[in-house]
Amino acid sequence: MGKRLRPRRASEASRAAASGGGAPRALNNAGPLSGPRLSVNINKVATLRNSRGGVTPSVVDAARVCVAAGAPGITIHPRADERHITRWDVPAIASFLAPLRDSVEFNIEGDPRQDLLAMVRDVRPHQCTLVPVRPGEITSQAGWPPSTPAAEIREVVADLQQRGIRVSLFIDPEADAVKWAAAMGARRVELYTEPFARAYKEGQDQAEASFRRYVEAANLAHALGLGLNAGHDLDLENLTLFRTLPHLDEVSIGHALISHALYVGLDKAVRDYLRACVPSA
Fold it and tell me: I want to staple 34 with a disulfide (CB 3.0 to 4.6 A). Which of 24, 197, 214, 273 is the partner?
């Protein structure tokens, strides 16, 4: 495993790479310091429940603990095979979050299949993140390629946004992918961060080289009027660098946060990640 990056150097590196990137923004529900919003992905709670059957642990109770700890967002990914979040979980989570709509953002992610789109139209989350799904994949492996046929995606994006649901498209940190997402009419993109997470483990030079790709993609997205989300394999260590990405609105974190919660508890895990989203002073 590579040498752990020092937060101070990481922050300096990102500022240099950003060449005067975005101005600090207040972090909603997490105090006055600046940083991206945290959306907690609770899929893994459903994975644990489904491994035994029944209703324990409850995904609604997990969402309740996350919100009580200060999480400004909840994310779920109802896959077609229901390996974690099921069709029954979606309205239950939506019902719990409904009274909190002004303070907690609800994000549903998934591929644009008809049953998922019907659920999204029914519960009307704040955001729908459209992701490509490959047959047999364990987890997401890449963003939408720019060669993706445009007509269907553009139609889905327009339909959801006309219903007041912001659409984010899951993409790789490449200029062509950012331009494609803008052409689809999406309001945000979510940058696929597993390549960055792998590079971070390899050491300082590899992490900063990878991070520069994300900075370029972030600046282009901002120039094209797109909001910016990110997610996949972000954790307490690599956030020391990634949280400084210019124009970053939101990070979606599930596997690492829930894994951390096994040792420290869900409430503390959420609070640890909220602090990790705040750039060093």
Answer: 24
Six-digit token string for 166 = 């912001």
Helix 204-223 to helix 7-18 angle, to the nearest 10 degrees?
40
Q: How far is CA 202 from CA 4, 49, 86, 235, 270, in A?
A: 9, 34, 36, 15, 26
What class is the 31-274 domain?
Answer: alpha beta
Tell me how far apart the alpha carbons of residues 129 and 4 are, in angstroms, rounded to a whole number.
Answer: 31
**How many angstroms separate the CA atoms of 177 and 228, rounded?**
13
Which of these ranges, 13-22, 127-136, 234-243, has the smallest mean pLDDT? 13-22
**Mean of the per-residue pLDDT values of the chain:** 88
Which residues, 6+ apart, have CB-to-CB distance to 279 below 8 Å?
11, 24, 33, 34, 35, 243, 244
**Residues with catalytic annotation?**
77, 109, 232
Does 57 sit behind a cis peptide bond, omega within 30 degrees of 0 on the bond before it?
Answer: yes
Please report how many Cα atoms fall inside a 13 Å half-sphere around the Cα of residue 176, on the Cβ side. 6
* CA nearest to 85, candidates 58, 122, 125: 58
Cβ proximity of 156 and 118 under 8 Å: no
Q: Say if residue 256 is exposed, middle or buried (CB neighbours under 10 Å; 0-12, 13-18, 19+).
A: buried
